[in-house]
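Re: that backbone. Tokens:
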């Protein structure tokens, strides 16, 4: 749940937050004792329109980790080497997820957050605002054919998933460590209506709040 007492270490998207998320991803994979020679896989997240004060003189906000040539590495950059690998790669507006991504790789509340984000995207689209949100696949309710249980694609079975290869997805989603309560609430979003899990509720915003939120999305 979002830290309502504002006692987190860092704000989402800050250099420190991204650096710690990358280190956590690398550590979880290293501790799993996987045969890394079997994987060529990358993970990257870029947060667009991140407030300049959080960039710490960096051009972009985001992080990556990857398994390449039998080794795992990561950092706050978004290298082409990682982006070229099969895996999970996403670019999303910072304001859409800053308060709902309270700490990485934990599935607590993920269904509620996913449902709320689906509603938010529909509300923004209905208002003529198309968010910078990259969906790899349609939601499971939009088609009835069998889908990969890891990423939702109808194009392959779970054991052949390039987004979350068997072993990787389970390791990351099973993380339940509470040492990673990193989220400090951001003043730009502080008074906006949101769900229990930190997803903005566009239809409950005042006109002033909507204008401010849309500006945060770079629109």
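Recovered sequence:
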């Amino acid at each position: 749940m979002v830290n309502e007492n504002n006692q987190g270490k860092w704000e989402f998207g800050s250099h420190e937050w991204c650096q710690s998320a990358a280190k956590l991803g690398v550590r979880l994979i290293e501790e799993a004792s996987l045969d890394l020679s079997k994987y060529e896989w990358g993970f990257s997240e870029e947060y667009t329109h991140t407030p300049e004060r959080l960039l710490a003189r960096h051009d972009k906000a985001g992080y990556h980790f990857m398994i390449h040539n039998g080794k795992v590495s990561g950092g706050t950059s978004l290298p082409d080497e990682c982006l070229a690998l099969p895996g999970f790669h996403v670019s999303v507006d910072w304001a859409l997820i800053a308060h709902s991504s309270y700490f990485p790789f934990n599935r607590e509340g993920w269904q509620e957050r996913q449902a709320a984000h689906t509603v938010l995207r529909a509300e923004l689209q209905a208002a003529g605002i198309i968010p910078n949100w990259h969906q790899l696949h349609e939601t499971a309710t939009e088609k009835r054919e069998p889908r990969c249980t890891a990423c939702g694609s109808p194009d392959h079975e779970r054991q052949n998933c390039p987004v979350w290869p068997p072993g990787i997805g389970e390791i990351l989603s099973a993380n339940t460590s509470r040492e990673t309560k990193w989220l400090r609430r951001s003043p730009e979003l502080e008074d906006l209506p949101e769900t229990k899990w930190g997803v903005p509720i566009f239809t409950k915003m005042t006109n002033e709040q909507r204008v401010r939120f849309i500006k945060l999305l770079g629109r």
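The longest strand covers residues 41-48. Residues 15-216 form one domain.
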